[in-house]
Write a structure and sequence with these properties.
- The chain is of the alpha/beta class.
- It folds into two domains: 14-132 and 292-347, no CATH class; 142-290, Glycogen Phosphorylase B (Rossmann fold, 3-Layer(aba) Sandwich), CATH 3.40.50.
- The chain contains twelve helices and eleven strands.
- The protein has helices at 25-29, 37-40, 48-61, 167-174, 190-198, 214-217, 223-231, 241-246, 259-271, 273-286, 292-315, 319-347, and strands at 14-17, 67-70, 78-82, 96-100, 112-115, 126-128, 150-152, 179-181, 205-208, 235-237, 254-255.
- α7 (223-231) packs across α10.
- The protein starts with 13 loop residues before the first strand and ends in an 11-residue tail after the last helix.
- The mean pLDDT is 91.
Length: 358
């Protein structure tokens, strides 16, 4: 594991609230000297809360910050938790709450919200923090040069648009002299899946398109694009807002909405090696902003800046004043929280989608 860049200390201690299962017991027992995110990452798969909260704690702890792992809110402290962990006690004003939205609805109650999609930034207490890159990522072999032979998809099959999984699409790429590699590894052990997702050494193009509902698309991160840049591999991606927020032109990535768009993009790149080379050079230019060190600094600056400023103003209020304000808002917030969760559970699967006509 490579050494991690230390960061300036936080002005206030921060508590990461994570109610993990027995598979994370060893981390709690060694929270002052925990394993690295790379070592633990296979256990994160399928657990959004662990991917965000536990990984962030590990990344910041290994950079020397005064962060602490706890299993419940700490009264009077800065507490970072996930929306699925917000309960009635969270609504009573006992702690200063930073809530990570992740792949879910906007938290109805929070002193600060961390969002992974720019559409979630609605006021000064909302903070866009990019998702962590793939731990242990293996970059493209530079000896591959301008060749385009392997188009790869790295992820679960349920997140790959169905028409791209059809034999007809694979055949169309084969006719261009390109193979589409999208191994169905959903049933493999997490360790094996991680090894596959880490490895871009023989990748020439990244392809990632998913037919999300319009509601669901607006909460998703730009992780596929960030990983492609970090791996030094040009990407063909679907029309998602997180990607579009980062895009300046075709050199950043090529946007596709149909199978024809994908085939035409691959043909264009094969016929124009200089354009393909320029996309690789652009990836190298954009990548530094999305390294683990860069994301860690973004977390540190958010916690040390606006979160600490707000926390110190909040701390100046008496406990009685904080509890009274929370008690007045509590019934309405409880109702809005339940409504937001219910809406998310329905609308993430229903309604118009970004690729289909219906």
């Amino acid at each position: 594991m490579r050494s991690q860049s230390p960061l300036e200390p936080l002005p206030e201690p921060v508590y990461f609230v994570f109610k993990g299962g027995p598979e994370f017991r060893d981390i709690f027992e060694n929270r002052n000297n925990p394993p690295s995110a790379e070592e633990v990452f296979p256990r994160f798969l399928g657990d959004t809360t662990a991917t965000w909260l536990l990984q962030t704690f590990l990344q910041l702890k290994h950079r020397g910050l005064n962060v602490h792992l706890v299993d419940r809110l700490v009264p009077g402290g800065i507490c970072v938790s996930g929306i699925w962990q917000v309960g009635r006690r969270s609504l009573l004003g006992r702690s200063y709450n930073v809530v990570v939205q992740a792949d879910c609805c906007r938290p109805p109650v929070a002193d600060h919200i961390v969002t992974q999609n720019p559409t979630g930034v609605l006021n000064k207490n909302d903070h866009l923090i990019y998702h962590w890159p793939q731990p242990g990522l293996i970059t493209r072999n530079p000896d591959r040069g301008d060749r385009i032979e392997n188009v790869v998809y790295r992820g679960t099959m349920n997140n790959l648009w169905a028409p791209l999984q059809a034999p007809e699409f694979t055949q169309r790429l084969a006719e261009l002299g390109v193979q589409f590699i999208c191994d169905n590894n959903d049933d493999q052990p997490n360790q094996d899946r991680c090894r596959l997702w880490q490895d871009y050494s023989n990748a020439d193009l990244v392809l990632a398109m998913r037919d999300l509902t319009v509601y669901d698309e607006r909460i998703k991160p730009a992780t596929k694009l960030a990983n492609a840049w970090l791996a030094g591999v040009p990407a063909i991606l679907g029309p998602e807002s997180a990607y579009q927020d980062l895009r300046t032109d075709d050199l950043d990535y090529i946007e596709a909405r149909t199978c024809d768009d994908v085939v035409n993009a691959v043909r264009r790149l094969k016929e124009n090696p200089s354009f393909y080379r320029a996309m690789r050079e652009r990836a190298a230019e954009r990548a530094p902003k999305f390294t683990a060190d860069a994301v860690a600094k973004l977390w540190r600056d958010t916690l040390a800046g606006p979160v600490t400023d707000g926390y110190r103003k909040w701390s100046q209020q008496s406990s009685a004043t904080r509890l009274l304000k929370a008690a007045i808002r509590h019934p309405l917030v409880c109702l809005s929280y339940r409504g937001a969760i219910n809406r998310y559970l329905v609308e993430r699967c229903q309604g118009p989608t970004i690729l289909s006509e219906s």
